[in-house]
Structure formats: structure tokens, C-alpha cells
Amino acid sequence: MYLGHFSLREAPFSITPDTDFFYPHAGAQASLNMLLVALRSGEGFVKVVGDLGCGKTVLCRQLLKTLQGECVTAYVPNPDMGPDDLLMALVNELGIEVVVPFSRHKVLNALRDCLLKHAQDGRRVVVCIDEAQAIPVRTVESIRLLSNLETEKRKLLQLVLLGQPELDDKLALPEIRQLLQRITFSEYLGPMHEGRVGVYLQHRMAIAAKDENTDVHVFEPKATLAIARCSGGVPRLINILAHKCLMLAYGEGSHRVTAAHVRLAAHDTPGVRVRAPWPWSLPVWRWGFAARQRASSLGRVDDQHEGGA
After folding, report:
1. What is the mean pLDDT of the chain?
2. Cα 253 from chain centroid?
3. Sheet containing 124-129: which strands, arranged edge to edge?
4. Among 8, 96, 175, 230, which is least packed, fewest CB within 10 Å?
């Protein structure tokens, strides 16, 4: 609703994992570098653990985008399934045909034959498993056995596990410690540094800009600092706050986002760090009232965030 007001061609702060908006802050770039080096070196298992909302999925998609034309890739977004179902999901992702009736033996043979063919043709096969903390314990052993698919010289299948910190807890269980020992490289993806939030906001505004004349310096310095502190540097929360701030500024007919806008957005957003007392403007008891009054008087401010969860 505010795109025309700010001369934008698309929403700059959608929380869907769009690689066009990928911002390589220090943690994201370090994780991507590690993944690329490890995979290009032929490592079998690598892992990235990150906090909720810190960009694991967009990192995964950026990795797959970077590897296009270089590797055969497969993506498993939801591994919360049994061993046979995960195996079938992998086979489907790789485009492998299996003769019915299905059996685990047939599926494994078809997968092995496919991987050998790719190896003979000089192609590496990389499988990214997102939300890996959701993998059931009984399925983890099946994943470990997939890593046994190899020749004398190389792994036939390289696996990337991306998950929340609970993934480390699961891998530490005694019954699956053999998989933990096979993970050769690991990286932590955390929130971005407070000082990079302003550049991140400008980066996304520039990507979404209608043309080169679009003003991307919409967020005032105090607003940028407030967003950084309220969000804790978590990209998803930054996006949600920034989106609501643009809506508030649009509702006022303003082309600048101020600290007051951030204050109102923060008190309407679960999960952010609202610090009191704020160093500016309205007392605490008026925040919710002010937001309602502004919305009702303008009649066009809708706090519903567009995009996926």
C-alpha cells in the first residue's frame, strides 16, 4: 500500500526468504564462505546452526543459487518425517524414477546408480536439509547411512544441515553420536551487528527501488538505532519493524521514518526488545492509544505484514 509513496516497485521488507535481498553481513558471509569452501573441497557433512529469524533459509537458498551449474542440488525444507519418507523426498528432488512397487532396497539402488552416474560425469551432488532440528532421531541414522555412499576417491553425496540450536542438542545424543563425528565443518549464524542495521535497511530499500532516483535514506539515524536495539539484530524482526514503520510514515504522509514510528511499531510486535524509558517522546501509557488514534484517523494504516512467516 505504500509502494508508490516511497517510489518502490516491490515490498522491501517482506519476511519471505528472497535471495534478491540477501545481505552478506559478517555472520551470513562467513557461513556462506564456509559452506562453499567445504563443499568444493568434497566434504561429506557440514552444518550451520542459527538462532530463530537470523536468515538460515535465505542463506540456504543463496547457497543453492551460487551452486547452480556447478553441482546437482536438492532441497528438503521440512525433514520431519520417517526414514523411508525422507529417502523418497530425496529421490523425488533428484528426479530419480523408481519402479513400482516401491521398496527401500529399490529406492537405495536407484539413488546409488544416479549418484554414480553424476560422479562419472564429474558432477557433485549437494543436498541441503533446512530446519534440521526437526529430523526425528530414528531418521538421523538413515541420513548417516547415506554418507556411506562413496567411491574410493570421493563422497557421492554431500549433505548440508541447517537448523536452530536444538540441532546441536539432538546431535549430542549418544545414540546418534556417529553422525556428529562425520560433520567436518560447522558455523554459527547469529544476529547482525548493530552498526550494520542501517546499511541493511538501505540495501533492501535500494533493491526494491523503482529506479535510481528513489530515496533509500528513509530511516533517520535515531530510528535505525532504535530498530537495531529493539530487534537485537535479528533480520526477521528488523524486517517486521521496518515494514510497520513505513506504513506509519505513509499514514502520516511523511517520507521519513522516525524513532517515534519505531516506538509504535515495537509495541505492536511480539518478540522485540522494548527498552524503557525511551529517550524520546510519548510516555509509556500513551503508546497503544496513540497508535490506535493514528490508525483510526487516517483510515489507511493496516498493520498486517505481507509475506510468509
Report:
1. 87
2. 33
3. 71-76, 124-129, 158-163, 45-50, 183-189
4. 175
Least confident of 54-58, 112-116, 214-218: 112-116
| CA dist list (Å): 46 to 61, 121, 157, 166, 246 | 16, 24, 12, 16, 39
pLDDT, tens digit, for every residue of 157-200?
999 999 999 999 999 988 888 888 889 999 999 999 999 999 99
